[in-house]
């Protein structure tokens, strides 16, 4: 008979348990109080970047019954029955409590007033956002976060993302008192206060009062704060509100043994609601370890909770912070080695045994790059070089060292996977070991271990070129080769393929070697570039005229409407603030272009690996929250970079304030207005693997902003691999964002003048590709459906009507009945 496992709680830890057991013989029923599926609560503040829940959602689970929005109201342990709020009853053979925790709200008078929130769930963030948007305050809003620990600083970061200047109030004498020592906290405070935060330590809120539409918070030190929103993020408490008759730990949590089993042998507790031998843990990694132990026992094993590594590495408000081992030197006789470089903005402390031979722990602030090397050495002999200022940290990691703390994956497990041939890159390591699939902080170490094991990724573009795309770019640039045939004859072999030909065509176009359909390039292009339009599923093409910044006059709108009407084209507004015209045949393209070009339109390059759009909000032109002219800048950028050929498509956006309506941080390069200028973000993208862009520079004026974007784009075009988005390129760049900043901002390599000159050449040489075809009879002759019968429409192309427009007939696919 199939046994039933009931899991109460659909958070990250409960999700991990079910993920392990979903292919087992257990029937699994999950009760989740939230209406949303399980999501990454560790990355909660990133929700503010896009307000898209899908960015946080964990991998959907199959093979189990998940009851979302169903709160458990009671459990009858004698009958082994769980009762939901809807009245549903489920009988269990085993019960796992994964109820997590609840925010701790200090007993501050006024804590229940409208505008006061906790910071725990996606719904909490939606509520905070609604409060801010309803606030009637000109200029930037003001908020208070009560709590200066890890969660408090995360909440403050979320408020910044919503256009709020946060005050952080912490009762302890320093920020992050659990993870960071006094010296590290002092530097952290100085660094975050440069980011529009005001820090109040050694005090608390004594009361919160309503004053019209505002909140007035009075602090214990006599300071009064005029606020729009208050967020409580002062810690958590294990959630144990179900009346189960089970013993609790001394600080809360269901008391369990090392097997995570309560006094009732059929009931387990895991995650933040569990007190393992009386100890509760507030990090996700120990929760995962508990889930794995319980899953093993439910499968007939005897695995127990191995204890927890409470080390943490995170980036708070753009500042690296890490602590590991005995960070506060509580071990008797412990010695501290401290390097506090206030000029560089870095702080490091190593804690060693009294004989200076064993590493006990440490704290890193401002630069945590050595964390992955140091953490596995805790409890082991410390190399003498580490105890010297600026000492080397790239030391040999022992085989049993834990590389991935989220999933307890050791170096030995990873190297075994590499040396056995199971994994030859980071993606395969993630799949077979789960390392790097949690917080992601261990991914750089995975790359290092691949290299250490002798795995080298081939740089060859394809079988015809042993060079990488970046190397071929420099060859073409230096030798001034203008044709594929010359390049493959001198630096390659064979006749080329569908990999190298488009890549070389992109390089030639990037170096301004004539029209994209010139004799030197036309044979290299794929179908989209060859016809300057996007091929669709039924053999027709879509035409996308450029609409810089999304701004368009009524007269131009009328022209697009008339063209669509006259040629029977399907029209759709794109996500990049343009109008897509679908259903044009090859022979119609020049006719359509002529009418659009005559009306002042030009190619939007939707077909090419080039700049697509620069999206914008309305900025100061119309919006009462705007602080800069986002539309004007978006138009300037789009007209500057139009036609810029690159390894992959480029998308951009400009937001007129921190509310981020243009979604600039999901773009290859995005700009967000500040009261002092512009912030530039780079390396973001949507697609299969969405990535939020990283902040490259802050508060720069328009001229400096454009200079840095020029350098960034040209550096990317010269060094990226074939079909490599800026996001993947940046993640694979040696030194990452810091190296990029050194190159394009600090000019460490001395190439910025050359990069700017290359962009200036592109700007001066730009010519519309559509117009170029219309002015060249030889190019026009290519646009025919049938060579032997020019002007004859393709009889295989059929349409049907849907919602008043023509759409393709999908042959072999039954029509949907509406």
From TrEMBL:
EC number: 1.8.7.1
UniProt pathway annotation: Nitrogen metabolism; nitrate reduction (assimilation)
Domain of life: Bacteria
Domain named BFD-like [2Fe-2S]-binding: residues: 403-450
Domain NADH-rubredoxin oxidoreductase C-terminal residues, every copy: 311-379
Domain FAD/NAD(P)-binding residue range list: 5-278
Domain Nitrite/sulphite reductase 4Fe-4S, chain residue ranges per copy: 608-748
UniProt-listed Gene3D superfamilies: 3.30.390.30, BFD-like [2Fe-2S]-binding domain, FAD/NAD(P)-binding domain, Sulfite Reductase Hemoprotein, domain 1
Protein keywords: 2Fe-2S, 4Fe-4S, FAD, Flavoprotein, Heme, Iron, Iron-sulfur, Metal-binding, Nitrate assimilation, Oxidoreductase, Thioether bond
InterPro entries: BFD-like_2Fe2S-bd_dom, BFD-like_2Fe2S-bd_dom_sf, FAD/NAD-bd_sf, FAD/NAD-binding_dom, FAD/NAD-linked_Rdtase_dimer_sf, NasD-like, NiRdtase/SiRdtase_haem-b_fer, Nit/Sulf_reduc_fer-like_dom_sf
General function of this protein: Catalyzes the reduction of sulfite to sulfide, a step in the biosynthesis of sulfur-containing amino acids and cofactors.
PANTHER family: NITRITE REDUCTASE (NADH) LARGE SUBUNIT
Family: Belongs to the nitrite and sulfite reductase 4Fe-4S domain family.
Name of the protein described by the UniProt record: assimilatory sulfite reductase (ferredoxin)
Annotated source species: Lentzea sokolovensis
Gene assigned in the entry: nirB
